[in-house]
Amino acid sequence: xxxxxxxxxxxxxxxxxxxxxxxxxxxxxxxxxxxxxxxxxxxxxxxxxxxxxxxxxxxxxxxxxxxxxxxxxxxxxxxxxxxxxxxxxxxxxxxxxxxxxxxxxxxxxxxxxxxxxxxxxxxxxxxxxxxxxxxxxxxxxxxxxxxxxxxxxxxxxxxxxxxxxxxxxxxxxxxxxxxxxxxxxxxxxxxxxxxxxxxxxxxxxxxxxxxxxxxxxxxxxxxxxxxxx
Length: 229
Fold this sequence. Notes:
Catalytic activity: S-ubiquitinyl-[E2 ubiquitin-conjugating enzyme]-L-cysteine + [acceptor protein]-L-lysine = [E2 ubiquitin-conjugating enzyme]-L-cysteine + N(6)-ubiquitinyl-[acceptor protein]-L-lysine
Protein name: E3 ubiquitin ligase TRIM40
Strand order of the largest sheet: 4-3-5
Keywords: Coiled coil, Metal-binding, Transferase, Ubl conjugation pathway, Zinc, Zinc-finger
Oligomer: single chain
Family: Belongs to the TRIM/RBCC family.
CATH architecture of the largest domain: 2-Layer Sandwich
Strand content: 5-15%
Number of helices: 6
Structural class: mainly alpha
Number of strands: 5
InterPro entries: TRIM/RBCC, Znf_B-box, Znf_C3HC4_RING-type, Znf_RING, Znf_RING/FYVE/PHD, Znf_RING_CS
CATH class of the largest domain: Alpha Beta
Distance between the termini: 56 Å
Order of helices and strands: EEHEEHEHHHH
CATH superfamily of the largest domain: Classic Zinc Finger
Shape: elongated
Radius of gyration: 27 Å
Number of domains: 3
């Protein structure tokens, strides 16, 4: 049997079959193998009840990392995150013409930066919700006052509609806050792109469609972006 090679990982070679990685997967210790090769190894090891990395022999979980950690184009470990394309890149991607002019972050920095933005956006929306609830309480008091004045009943439908608009806006903003906070908590390399999509969807300029019927002054206040997002 050909001995496993420890120096071929960066070249994209599977230590088991000694060929280019196909559908590369990683063990808990970070070594890469062809999916088929590692699956066969796991099946053989399952008889003894102990699964160890074929290369370093460290105990591993049978739940190998998903393909999100491996570049689908070059079958190598991803090491950077491109902010423009919102894609995970390997060393070969970094030198390709497509990405040479882009700004890339290490995966660790990308995760930290994205989590910070998600949490900051969540805090901003929570403040918006509080402002809307304050406005709703004012409108409800106004509606109650109108109900006592028979001569102003014609204004009541407009006031009730305004309260309904505010309630709908609060519901939609709360849903966004839940998504933002859950994404920040569960953020990893597999969800970086989705996190970027969520940040775009919750950007101040995108929220205008949530409460288009609110009074102009209130809409302008809520849609005003924070100093840094």
